[in-house]
Write a structure and sequence with these properties.
The protein is α/β, with parallel strands linked by helices and 380 residues long. It has two domains: 249 residues, TIM Barrel (Alpha-Beta Barrel); 94 residues, no CATH class. α11 packs antiparallel against α14 and α14 runs antiparallel to α15. The two termini are 38 Å apart. Strands 4-15-14-13-12 form a five-stranded parallel sheet. A four-stranded parallel sheet has the order 5-6-10-11. A three-stranded antiparallel sheet has the order 1-2-3.
Amino acid sequence: MGVFEFKVVSSSPECAGRLGVLRTPHGVVETPAFMPVGTQASVKTMTPDELHALGAKIILSNTYHLYLRPGAELIQQAGGLHTFMNWEGPILTDSGGYQVFSLAKLRSISEEGVEFRSHLDGSRHFLTPEKVVAVQEALGSDIAMVLDECPPYPCTPQYAADSMARTTRWAIRCREASRRQDQVLFPIVQGGVYRELRQQHAEEIAALDFPGIAIGGLSVGEPKDIMYQVLTWLQPYLPSAKPRYLMGVGAPEDLFNGVARGIDMFDCVLPTRLARHGQVLTTDGPLTIRNAAYARDFTPMDSECTCPVCRNYTRAYIRHLFKAGEILGMRLTTTHNLHFILTLMARIRDSLRTGSFMQYQTEFFQRYQGERNASGTCRT
């Protein structure tokens, strides 16, 4: 069996937050951790060396997209995803379940699997739990995800219950199909926004005794307070000795609220997607670098940031790059946003270590959101 181990180092006396260490065949990750998203074997505009320099320890890639292009067989021939993209650290691959959810008009779901049309060329494909595992094994990621059905928001209790039950059956089929000894599978808790279903599914999935557990079906359109409520419901039902992964969530307020409810791993396209549109995360809240107000602003994007962008470039220059359509603008804002989120996670870990998590979140939001939400963001 490849090296995979998770250990809770300490727990917060203030909330359900905890510090952990995740060991994988390709390296060690301190948790709670944020995973930059490299959907197509690339975190957009960034090189692996740059990601490493920013403090990224683990990244996420997408099975659906890599299956369609360039194909798992090609990546396997290249020596696996780590070699193909020149990333030496751990990689988590998602199963494509969310893409199936988001391509509702192009797919149909049955007990056997999901038939869908490629968003690239319209070609027909059929993904089963067994095929999803085979693709991820060819990719060679450290952590693979089972195929799940992500219900939309809103949906009826019956719809949520049916998709939840199918997700459990698919998780069992995925485990039975698993062959690689150096890759672990995480199952996914579903159940919509219904307390009884969520708790029931958490118990069912926990009983399957996988090495970790993920929470899916959130950040799909529901209000944030509902998402936090679901996490609160789930927290007592999730195995305490295993890593807990909240899928597709990564705004600063969500990271604090997730950590406070015992989440260990996060991923989200938010920091890189915002960056490509000129949206910058700063200590004093988000700003839009394209705005005319910054045309003659020769200060850093964030005066308190230590990233290479804020040390060397001004708001006026980066705004000019965006207005001129220069790719460098997106590279610089992406570098900064990822640094902001990865540094935030490091400071959250420090606050858990020193027992000052609630104080830190209050101080952070007093600056980031003003008095709005400055107290109580993470109350459970």
